[in-house]
Amino acid sequence: MTAFLVVLVIILFGVAVWQMSKIFELSKTKQTDTGDIASDKDNKVNGYLMIMFLVFLYLLVIISFWKWGDVLLPKAGSEHGSQIDNLMLVSMILLFVVGILTHWLLLTFAFKYRGEKGKRAIFYADNDKLEFIWTIIPVIVLAGLIIYGLFTWTDIMNVSEEDDPLVIELYAYQFDWRARYAGEDNTLGEANVRLIEGVNQLGVDASDPNAQDDKITNELHLPVGRKVLFKMRSQDVLHSAYMPHFRAQMNVVPGMVTQFAFTPTVTTEEMRQEEYVIEKVRNINELRKENSEELIAKGESPLDPYEFDYLLLCNKICGINHYNMQMKIIVESQEDYEAWLAEQPDMAEVLKDQ
Amino acid sequence: MSAHAQDVAVDHHDDHGHHHKETFITKYIFSQDHKMISKQYLITGIFMGIIGILMSVLFRMQIAWPEEPFTIYEIFLGKWAEGGVMDPSVYLALVTIHGTIMVFFVLTAGLSGTFSNLLIPLQIGARDMASGFLNMLSYWLFFISSVIMVCSLFVEAGPASAGWTIYPPLSALPQSIPGSGVGMTLWLISIAVFIASSLMGSLNYIVTTLNLRTKGMSMTRLPLTIWAFFVTAIIGVVSFPVLLSAALMLIMDRSFGTSFFLSDIYIAGEVLHNQGGSPVLFEHLFWFLGHPEVYIVILPAMGIVSEIMSTNARKPIFGYRAMVASILAIAFLSTIVWGHHMFVSGMNPFLGSVFTFTTLLIAIPSAVKAFNWITTIWKGNLQMNPAMLFCIAFVSTFITGGLTGIILGDSALDINVHDTYFVIAHFHLVMGISAVYGLLAGVYHWFPKMFEGRLMNKNLGYVHFWITAIGAYGIFFPMHFVGMAGLPRRYYTNTNFPYFDDLADINVVITVFAIITAAAQVVFLYNFFHSIFYGKIGPKNPWKSTTLEWTAEMKHIHGNWDGPIPHVYRWPYDYSKLNKDETDYVIPGQDFVPQTIPLKENEDELNH
Question: Could you give a GO molecular-function term held by this entry (chain B) (predicted)?
Answer without folding.
Answer: cytochrome-c oxidase activity
